Amino acid sequence: MADEVIRGVGLAPSDAISFFRQKLNMPSKRWGELEAQAHGTQFAVAGATSKALLDDFRVAINKALVDGTTLAEFRKDFDAIVKRHGWAYNGTPGWRSAIIYETNLASAYAAGRYKQMTTPEALDIFPYWRYRHHACQHPRPQHVAWDGMILPADDPWWNTHYPPNGWRCHCTVEPVSRRDLKRYNWTVSEAPPLKEKPWRNPATGKTVMVPDGIDPGFQSNPGRDWALGEKQRAATRLTPVIPTGEDAILARREEIQKQQIQDMLKARSGTVEAGTVPDAVREALDVKTDSALLSGDTLSKNLSAHPDLEPVDYLRLPVLIADPAVIVPDTKPTSIVVISYRAGQHYRIAIKRTKDGTKLFLGSMLKFSRERAEALIKSRGALWGDLPSLGVEENGSDQGK
User: Fold this and answer.
1) Is the overall model pTM greater than 0.85, yes or no?
2) What is the pLDDT of residue 394?
3) Which of 307-320 are b and which e, b meaning 16 or more Cβ less than 10 Å from the residue's Cβ?
């Protein structure tokens, strides 16, 4: 599939990346276990039943979206992942890697483009959409027939026919303004009659109706499904709870923070208080607040970039933030890095302040080795603290927190 088709026309990748990162892992034994509408919010690779395997594929696809990894480069990642997990899969390596790469990138860019084209501003300027079929080796007759068709952007036809409309489908949608209609002498059509046929899902045994010309599993609009999910998340958007009175006592405050993080791991929307920074962090960043906040967007980004982190790692944040071992400078003066150690693991956490200096936010969190921690301290210098000796790390009484 050509890069310009995968990535969309004139589409900044940020929305495509956001679409992919908000997805939740869904292990599956075979294709079809995930219903069509679920692909807008869940990530699955047929036959990938373990979290570790799905996490590795997430990293590889996220890299493709962020860095523009080519199919040839993705295939190298695919081979390494398969070898590392001993994964037995259906199909040849070249075919299977291409399907995973193209399907995920095409749907991500389509969803990102849908989001951009459905903003109030975009709909005001471009109230119509035009279906475009792109040249390919094996064109589908129905997709060719739809090429050039213009419908209102709010026509229900797009709910089921917004591309990609099948495996390795190259089709896209382009916005059309009223001026475009006059300039090119285009006319707005009526949606073709919806012809559906029953399809029995071999994985679930359920029979669903699939529009003619659409491959089973593609009879939904991932961008629309994502938008509906975002609305639901917005309805339950979290706000930080800053304890006062007796709840402000550190031990009690950490329990409240832990509960907020647990809620955020489910909602991934809004902002919560994730930890209480020590005075050394406040002084390093020149702020008065001691409240370190975690946003849903940052959590989603971190979950995608560092899938090795488990929920228990995030639930340790209150302790990791309140009781770091070392504080080192970051690459920007408005950010610092704290190095903490718990449960036999070193953590690197970036904390940044807002421009007005009134709030603190977590920027990232990852696991790393003592050797990397020592190298970071050596290269940047410590603003405060020092790594505990190996004996203390191994025998410390608080390691299970």
Assistant:
1) no
2) 53
3) bebeeebbbbbbbb
